[in-house]
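User: I'm preparing a small set of examples for a lab meeting where we compare how different chains pack in three dimensions. I only have the primary sequence for this one, and I'd like the structure in token form so I can line it up with the others. Please keep the answer compact; I'll paste it straight into my notes.
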Amino acid sequence: MPQATTVGRLLHELHSESPAVRDLVVRAAGLSAERADGAMSGDVKLSLSEQLRLSEATLLLAPDYARDALRLRGQALAARSYESGEFVESHRDAPIERWERSANLRR
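Assistant: Understood. Below is the structure token output for the 107-residue chain.
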């Protein structure tokens, strides 16, 4: 049994609201109905660019699902960054280390 993905859950939620809404979002994202059906069932894995397009189309056409669309967008961007090797160093030192060093400075 295929595992549920963020894409699959989003498409399922859109379909639960209305198959017409799901189809509208899928068409706007430039996906075929067959690929969307496959992604919804977990049999097809969408490319990162397809995931980003689906997220953007959802934000524009089904704003009630913005939270799910933004989650998908974040995951797709993180995966793209990981695959390209372009990591962002947000913390050179762990925050706890800075806190521990500041305690030593106060003595």
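A couple of notes for your slides: The two ends are 60 Å apart (CA to CA). The chain has a mean pLDDT of 85.

User: Perfect, thanks.
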